[in-house]
Amino acid sequence: MFTYPNKIIAVSCSAICKIPLAKQVPRIAEAGIKRLILREKQLDEAEYTRLAEEVLKSCLEYGVELTLHYYPSAAKSLGISRLHMPLSMVTEELCAKFETLGCSVHSAAEAVKAQRLGAAYVMAGHIFATDCKKGLAPRGLDFLREVCTAADIDVYAVGGINESNIKSTLEAGAAGVCIMSEAMKL
């Protein structure tokens, strides 16, 4: 379905998904996407952990790698070694506790800081206009190139990514892209 499925990380958003997230995983897998970040900021830790447990079962069944977001203890309790955090919460100690820890950044300097702290990758954005950031001007491909040049870790473009602009983000140096709407509405 997608031109570069191995370069895509799906990011969850149950608010725009028409079916339960655990049932969306087969659709994501069918599209060739093999990675999912469970990003449900509206849930408290107990609710998030229950949802993560359901989604994990589906991910294991369909061969989709699951990364949890924001709650390190939920990841540890479920045996998940991949975590995505806001940069403000990333520490060397936290990075050491996970096989893969990534974070979101909004500047080249933040990408360098994330790398120094031990992050395995960063998500940089928002690159294109997106409903998730209504009213905020996108940072664009020049910003993405700057982040990719500054960091020696994988940089994933995020924000307004769709099939028509994936190629341009990869050409700007991104290791891949993160998609929300496109993945949640499959």
Structure description:
By secondary structure, this protein is an alpha/beta fold. It has one domain: Alpha-Beta Barrel (TIM Barrel). It is 38% helix and 20% strand. It is built from 8 helices and 8 strands. The chain has an 8-stranded parallel β-barrel, surrounded by 4 helices. Helix 4 links the parallel strand 4 and strand 5. The longest helix is centred in the N-terminal third of the chain and has 18 residues. The protein is globular. The protein starts with 7 loop residues before the first strand and ends with a helix.
Short description:
The chain is α/β, with parallel strands linked by helices. It contains eight helices and eight strands; from the N terminus they run βαβαβαβαβαβαβαβα.
